[in-house]
C-alpha cells in the first residue's frame, strides 16, 4: 500500500509547516513541502499530522467494570475488581475491541495491555485479546499480568509476614504458561509483541521476577510491571525487603532500558537515580492515580533526572475511560501544582513527545516509531483542526494537548494501514460492538464485594485510618 | 409548550428507576412511573435524565486564546491574556456562542460568565454576550468583570505598596456603568441575571467591593468574585490588609449566601469557618488551578465544614476547554490524593449534586433549580446510555462522572425549551459558528507578550524563583 498525504500541517522547531508525506508499505519514505503523488492521495488541508501516541499501560478487561467501583484506594479497589472480573473469553475479546477503538479515536496507535488472565484459560485470554487488536488494527503490546502470591499479601501487615503462595500456581507453572504464550504469539513483524509482566512486588516472588527477566533476555522481550503505586506498597516493600522496591528490583536485575514501570508514585530521590542509571521508563497514569488516591507521581523530577516518561490510561475501571488525550492533558498540567517554577512545567510540545517518542523508547522501539521521520514506521494520526473543540484557530498542538478535543481524530494509520477514516474506525463495525457490549451487560444498582468487606478493617488499621 | 418524557432512567436512593416526567411551560409538573401523555412525547428509553449542571465560573472571551498561552502562573498568564484580548464586540458574541454550545453539550444548562469587558464598549460587550446566550437558549448569569487598579498591583511587591488606581476608571465610574447594565439587562424571568463581580482583592479597591455590595442589595443580585486563586494573592492580601483576604471581604460585607467565589485555593481553616458562617459558595475550577499551577483547592475540607461547592470550567484559555463533564470529573477525583481516608472522597452521586443543586444554591436559586423535583424549572439533560463511552452498562452516574463521555448529551431543555435534540444544538447553526470562528482566527506560531516580559523578573523575584 502506497499513499501520499498532501499538505498536512506538522510541527517544526517552534512553529508549523505544511508538507506532503509519502508512505510506502509500512514506512514513511519522504517528507517534503511538495512531493510527486505516488499511490492514493489523502487531502490533509486544515489537518494536523502527528506520530501515533502510546497508551502505554492499561488492562483491557477492566472495561466491564468501568464506572461502578466506588471511591476506594487501590488495595480495596483491587479486591472489588477481582470479585467481579469477567470470566468469559468472549467478553475479554469485546473489551479489547473497545479499548482499541477508544485508544485510536484519541490519538493512540499502540496499546500496552497488562492483561488480566482468566484463571485456567490464560492462553485463550491472550489469544482472544490479540485477535481483537488485530481485528481493529492497532499495534498491540500484550503483557500477561502474572502473580504468584495471594491478594491479602499485597496489604502491609504491620509486621513482617511470610510470603503467601497460591496453591497450584507456582512461579514455575506461570513461567511455563508465559513461555508458551511467547512462542505462540510474539510476532513483532505482525505488530504483536509479548512482554514479561509480573504485576508488581506486592504480589510476586523474586523467583517470578527473575524468571521473567530470563525469558525477556532469551526472547528479546520488553519488561513491564507496576511499581510503587501506593503508600501501602511503599510500606510493604520495606516489610518484605528491608529496602525500597526499586533497590530490590535493581538488585534482582529486572530494571533495564527495556523495562517500563507503571505509576512510580512513591519513589525517593535515590530510587529516581536508579531508574535513570538503568534507563528504565516510567509510565504515568495520572487519572488512575487520582481516582484511587494513590498520589501525584513526581514526573517533573523524573524528567529533570533524565528518566524517560510516557502516558497510560490505566484500566478503564480506575480512570474510567480509555481517552488517551485526556490522560496526556491531565498528566501534563497536574504537575504544575508540584513546582512553583513554571519553567519546569511540561509544555504541550513536550507532552506530544512524551506520548509518542517516550512511548516508543519505553518499548525499545525508539528507532522505529514515535516521530515523523523518514525511515520510521507509518503509525500516524491526522487531526481535524476545523472541529469546534479546536476552534478558534490558535496553536494546534496547544489546543490538542490542553483542550478537551472530542471527535477530532480524522484518520489513523498503523504500520501503513488505514484503520480510521473520516473519524470512523474502518476495520470493525463499531455499532455492532456497541450492541454487543450493551447486550452483555446490565445497569448495576447495588453490588457488594465480599473481599472488600473481608479486607477493609485490616486495611484501615494498617494505614492508620480510624 | 407541554411535553412528556417517557421512561427516563433517573437516580433514586442508591439505585435507579424508570419514570415519566411531565413539563408544562417552564416547570416540571409531574414525575411518576407512568403518566398520561400530555403534549409532545419524548421517548427516553435507555437514556438517563438529570438536572442541568452549572458552569459556575467562566470568561467566555478567553475562547479566542485557548491553547496558545504557554505554561505560566496566573499573574504572568493574565499579563499575556490581556495583551491579546479580543477588542471586537462581534468576536465576544461568537465566543459566547461557543461557550454556550460546549457547556450545553457537556451537561450544562446554566453559565456564569465573569465577563471581561472591552474598554470603552462595556455595555456593548454585555449586550452582545447576552444576545448570544439567548440565541443558544442557555440560562445566562452575566457577571461583568470589573476592577479599578492597575495590573501590576496584582503582584505582591515584597513590601507594602500604595494602591494603584487607573486614570479615568474610578470605582464610581465603573459602578455607574454596572448600574446601567443592571437596569438594561437583569431579567430573571427571561433567564438573564446580572451579578456584581469585582475581579478580586488583587485589583479592586474597597470602594469598588462596597459599591458592588450596595448594588447587590438594592437590586437583589448575586455577588461573584475570584478569591485567593494563587499563593501570590495570599501574600498580597497580607500586604494590602494585614489579614487574610477572606477576613477582609467579610469585614467589608461582601460575603453572603448570595456570594459565589471562584477558586478559593489558598484559605486557612479560619477562612473556611468564615465561608461556612456567611453561607458563601465556593466555585471549584480544578483544570484551571492545575494548568496555572495555582494549587489544589481544599474541597474536601469545604464539604466537611458545610460550605456549598459547585464546579466551573473557568475561561477557555486557562483550561483550555468548556467541557463541564471534564471539570466535574477532575474536580471530584483530584481530591482523593489530599486525604488518605477514602470515606471522605466525593462519590459520583455527590458530584452530580454539587454540579446541579450546588450550582443553583450558589446563585440563590436552590428553590427553583438544581434537582428533578415537581415545581422546579425544567432545566433538564438527557444522556444517551448507548454511546460507546458509556458502555458496557454498569452504574450510569458512575460512567458519566468518572468516564470520559463524548457526544453523550442527547437532549437539553432550558426553562422548558428544547435547545439540544439528537445530540445537536437546535437553536443556532453550529456549522456556521465553526466557519466564523475559523475565518476570524489564524494558527499562531509565535507571539510575544510585552507585559509578560515587563513583569517576569519582578514576579520571579517576589516569588523566590531563582
Automatic annotation (TrEMBL), chains A, B:
Per the UniProt record, one Pfam family is Amidohydro_1
Q: Which Gene3D superfamilies match?
A: Metal-dependent hydrolases, Urease, subunit C, domain 1
Report domain Amidohydrolase-related positions: 49-419
* Keywords carried by this UniProt record: Hydrolase
Iron-sulfur as UniProt keyword: no
InterPro entries, sorted: Amidohydro-rel, Metal-dep_hydrolase_composite, Metal_Hydrolase, MTA/SAH_deaminase
- What's the protein called, per UniProt? Amidohydrolase
Native organism: Floridaenema fluviatile BLCC-F154
